[in-house]
Design goal:
Elements (H helix, E strand, L loop, with lengths): L3 H27 L7 H21 L5 H26 L6 E8 L2 E8 L8 E8 L6 E7 L9 E4 L4 E5 L5 E6 L6 E2 L11
Antiparallel strand pairs: 1-2, 2-3, 3-4, 5-6, 6-7, 7-8
């Protein structure tokens, strides 16, 4: 049987790890740098936080029944979370790249996507920078279902981008070169006008 200082030390370590994983999860959810893989980071970090939290909470009760009950509830909730992640991953994908324009280390990518992309595609223009696990991705323009791809996408200066739709509408946005924050993000409400 472990001694009381060993139990306290174990609880302190598990509590600290749970807090650290929770803090990293919060940063991933806030996504201040518009990371392309942020949804995956969120999924993994929240799952790790749930597992550590379950282990931490299951170690607190003195009675075995309480520990088993907390562990069982934690495992069920974690498995439900993983099932939800798997379900959402079946519908969300990177989309098919239709066009790409490069200026320095930034790229403007026109993507064809949507839940049922083969049936009713939705076009979007995304600003991307970098590569690997810290690649950045930010939405610039989101089209409507049954809409056409934009006719022109271009960089209009060091920190500006422009999207011209098939109807001749021009949308300009500024972006921050470090965080890739785009202002404004354009989401037209109808197909027949600007």
């Amino acid at each position: 049987m472990p001694t009381l200082p060993t139990i306290r030390r174990r609880s302190l370590v598990l509590g600290s790890l749970t807090f650290a994983a929770g803090a990293l999860s919060a940063v991933a959810i806030a996504d201040p740098f518009n990371l392309l893989l942020a949804p995956w980071y969120i999924g993994v970090l929240v799952t790790v936080t749930m597992a550590l939290g379950t282990a931490f909470l299951a170690g607190l009760p003195r009675r075995r029944t309480g520990r088993v009950l907390i562990a069982a509830v934690g495992v069920v909730v974690t498995l439900a979370w993983v099932g939800l992640l798997w379900f959402v991953a079946q519908f969300v994908g990177p989309g098919r790249v239709v066009d790409e324009r490069v200026a320095g280390d930034h790229r403007l990518v026109t993507v064809e996507g949507g839940v049922f992309a083969g049936v009713d595609p939705i076009y979007a223009v995304r600003l991307r920078a970098g590569s690997g696990p810290f690649a950045q991705d930010a939405l610039v323009w989101q089209g409507l279902e049954d809409g056409a791809a934009p006719t022109d996408v271009r960089f209009a200066g060091d920190d500006r981008v422009e999207v011209v739709t098939s109807g001749g509408c021009g949308y300009r946005s500024r972006f921050d070169r470090v965080t890739l924050e785009v202002d404004p993000v354009h989401r037209p409400l109808r197909l027949d006008g600007c």
